[in-house]
Design goal:
Number of strands: 11
CATH topology of the largest domain: Rossmann fold
CATH architecture of the largest domain: 3-Layer(aba) Sandwich
Number of domains: 2
Number of helices: 9
Strand order of the largest sheet: 3-8-7-4-5-6
Largest sheet: 6 strands, mixed
CATH class of the largest domain: Alpha Beta
Structural class: alpha/beta
Length: about 250
């Protein structure tokens, strides 16, 4: 079966640069982009109902750039002045450097994991007497809170944003030969928009183990998987699949 169109469940690149666009240029395949899920901030009036006082804490744990954006959004909307001696603990170096968007980086106490999330937890344990705030999504995973509880860290969760499904009902999924997913929420959005979806000959591609599990749990057939040994990216996995398909002709 010839592959003509691929749907990538991500926003279209604003700068026109993407490995998927490069893939389309090297092949006769059309690649379309469509966001299946999006992040929306929790309104401050809703956040107030949680009765979490952000300034009662002496340190903040950031697991993503999104958590940073919404932490500073809410503090601004609540007109809170974040103390200069606030400590920041980040999942990795890239997340830590993203803080420069909101603070003078060199003047603050910032810690981050050098390689893994456990490295960050190591930094948190070194500062066990701090009172931590953990900004999370409404539908957050429980692994990080569980880890903090196991380490006996004093922390409070602050639900500042949520992942919601985009309206996709204008799409004709039968126009696509391959659907590409990057999160379990993307699979849920698929069935939220198309509850009667039948895979049939449509190929499903997924990135990451949790997404692969969600595909299988939904009763779908997983045809293209990444990352794998020698296949670090989704675009590379698609390239290999298309090359194998071409050789069969």
């Amino acid at each position: 079966m010839k592959t003509r169109r691929i749907l990538v469940s991500q926003p279209e690149p604003q700068n026109g640069k993407s490995p998927y666009i490069d893939l389309a240029e090297r092949t006769s395949v059309t690649v379309d982009f469509r966001q299946f899920i999006k992040v929306e901030g929790i309104a401050t009036r809703e956040f107030r109902k949680s009765k979490v006082n952000m300034l009662d804490h002496t340190a903040v744990i950031f697991t993503s750039k999104t958590s940073i954006d919404h932490y500073f959004r809410v503090t601004e909307e609540l007109r809170l002045s974040v103390p200069e001696d606030m400590k920041y603990f980040c999942a990795n170096e890239a997340t830590a450097y993203y803080l420069q968007k909101y603070i003078v980086y060199r003047k603050r106490k910032i810690f981050f994991g050098k390689r893994t999330l456990d490295d960050m937890f190591g930094e948190v344990v070194k500062h066990k007497n701090e009172k931590y705030l953990l900004p999370v999504s409404v539908n957050h995973k429980l692994d990080i809170p569980r880890k903090l509880k196991k380490l006996k860290i004093n922390f409070t969760k602050a639900e500042l944003y949520e992942t919601v499904f985009c309206d996709l009902t204008d799409l004709q999924l039968t126009d696509y030969d391959i659907l590409v997913f990057f999160s379990p929420q993307g699979i849920k959005s698929l069935f939220s928009n198309f509850p009667e979806f039948k895979q049939s000959e449509t190929k499903i591609a997924s990135f990451g183990p949790s997404t692969a599990k969600a595909v299988k749990d939904a009763g779908l057939r997983l045809d293209i998987k990444a990352p794998m040994p020698q296949v670090p990216s989704m675009s590379k996995a698609l390239q290999i699949y298309l090359e194998k398909l071409a050789k069969k002709k």
